[in-house]
Design brief:
Blueprint lengths: L22 E4 L1 E10 L7 E7 L5 E12 L2 E10 L3 E2 L14 E10 L6 E11 L2 E15 L19 H12 L12 H23 L1 H12 L4 H6 L11 H13 L1
Parallel strand pairs: 1-9
Antiparallel strand pairs: 2-7, 3-6, 3-8, 4-5, 4-7, 8-9
Helix pairs in contact: 1-2, 2-3, 2-5, 3-5
């Protein structure tokens, strides 16, 4: 989302998905963008709530914008402590006409979390008004296996969001090695981290279901015609935009159960 409440052009989809009840695996992260849109210079307070309480371990980051050409793209992340009070913050970059403040909500699902449904909500206070945005989260029996935390080179900031997830998928399907890179916290870095945990689950599934079956399942989820052509030049379904990768994650969660 850009500073004016619009989806960044590179990430737009012809048929965007609406996910009101996401499934999440234990011993892993689930991440969400939270965007507050208010008139310019309007103070607000943003809270987050859970029911039952303290099931998820939440970390909140404020997304900062990088200007590329005429576009503003969120990428660098600054950790903030909830509740976030906009008027208590020091003056930041000036973007004329800015109406949107974007946050990255990182939810860690403990390995021992109880399987079932819970409520996660953003709670926005503007003056005397409250806006509550609830979401059901379905904690599944699946556990992400422990895996090494590595740091690889990232795609350019102006690239579609799915490019950050593509590297780990190519490494699993095609044996492509990823070059090392800097480890600063950013939207691209955490998308890559989440894709690495997906591939850790894929490797575990390959031991149980067979590598060929998992590879074929991943290729179908990615909309690929075949491994050889896709590995030489990945082409993803244009109508899904950057959201095509979510189907890869869906496949892994279903296969693991």
């Amino acid at each position: 989302m850009d500073p004016f409440g619009r989806i960044v052009e590179a990430d737009r989809a012809l048929r965007p998905r609406e996910i009101l009840s996401p499934a999440v695996a234990r011993n892993g992260y689930a991440s969400f963008h939270v965007v507050v849109i208010v008139p310019p210079q309007t103070p607000f307070v943003l809270h987050f709530g859970q029911n039952p309480e303290d099931v998820l371990k939440l970390t909140v980051y404020k997304e900062r914008f990088v200007k590329v050409g005429q576009a503003w793209i969120p990428d660098p992340l600054e950790r903030v402590l909830p509740p976030y009070e906009s008027r208590a913050r020091t003056p930041e970059q000036s973007i004329p006409g800015q109406t949107a403040t974007a946050f990255w909500l990182d939810a860690w699902i403990p390995a021992e979390a109880r399987v079932g449904r819970m409520r996660l909500e953003a709670q926005l206070n503007v003056g005397e008004h409250w806006v509550i945005a609830p979401m059901e989260v379905r904690i599944r029996p699946v556990r992400i296996p422990d895996h090494a935390d590595t740091s690889e080179a990232l795609p350019p900031v102006e690239a579609p969001a799915d490019r950050a997830a593509l590297g780990p998928l190519l490494a699993f399907l095609c044996g492509t090695a990823e070059p090392p890179g800097a480890a600063s916290v950013s939207v691209r870095r955490l998308i890559r981290r989440n894709a690495r945990q997906d591939m850790a689950l894929a490797r575990q599934l390959a031991e149980r279901l067979g590598e060929h079956a998992v590879r074929e399942g991943l290729l179908r989820a990615a909309g690929a015609a075949g491994a050889a052509s896709w590995c030489s030049g990945p082409e993803t379904p244009a109508e899904r935009g950057a959201e095509w990768y979510l189907r890869v994650r869906d496949y892994l969660l279903r296969a693991a159960e």
